[in-house]
Design brief:
With 163 residues, this protein is of the alpha+beta class. It contains six helices and four strands, in the order E-H-H-H-H-E-E-H-H-E.
């Protein structure tokens, strides 16, 4: 069931998604390396060697992905120094990076549902209650929104960027 499109979006041939937020997000986090580095950051990894080894990528690929995520504002580079060693940097999630977690949980939940053969290897639980945690669509007032009730329209406050 596709989403219900309103206004000028109804005619897909007339609407060009040149300012699509999904495309802009994928420009930053749309690679396997970027998403797995974010996974590791959510798990608590903060040092370069940890990202490269846990994600299973080369140092060059880790460096490139970490640079892109840092430049985009999802990670912050902070100096640290172990006694008797040179200053190095660790990577810490920013508010922007933390705010992406619900989307990552939704992707994880989808993978558990459709791509795991049987019981998924990890559970997401609320710390205080031990209850399972799920990503859901909710309105700004907090009630769950069934997919068939989701509507998409052009924001009346949006102005098309000039070229």
């Amino acid at each position: 069931m596709p989403l219900v499109l309103e206004g000028p979006l109804k005619d897909l041939s007339a609407w060009k998604p040149d300012s699509c937020s999904i495309a802009k997000a994928l420009d930053i986090v749309g690679t396997r390396s970027a998403m797995l580095i974010l996974r590791e950051a959510y798990y608590g990894t903060s040092r370069f060697d940890g990202f490269a080894s846990r994600v299973g990528i080369t140092d060059a690929a880790a460096s490139s992905a970490l640079r892109k995520l840092t430049e985009a504002g999802l990670l912050e580079k902070r100096p640290y120094q172990e006694e008797g060693k040179r200053t190095r940097h660790e990577y810490v999630l920013t508010r922007m990076g933390l705010d992406l977690l619900p989307a990552v949980v939704a992707l994880w939940q989808w993978g558990d549902e459709y791509l795991q053969d049987g019981t998924p290897p990890l559970e997401r639980l609320e710390d205080s209650t031990g209850e399972p945690v799920r990503a859901e669509l909710r309105s700004s007032s907090g009630h769950e929104v069934p997919l068939e009730n989701l509507r998409v329209r052009v924001n009346e406050n949006w102005r098309r960027p000039r070229k």
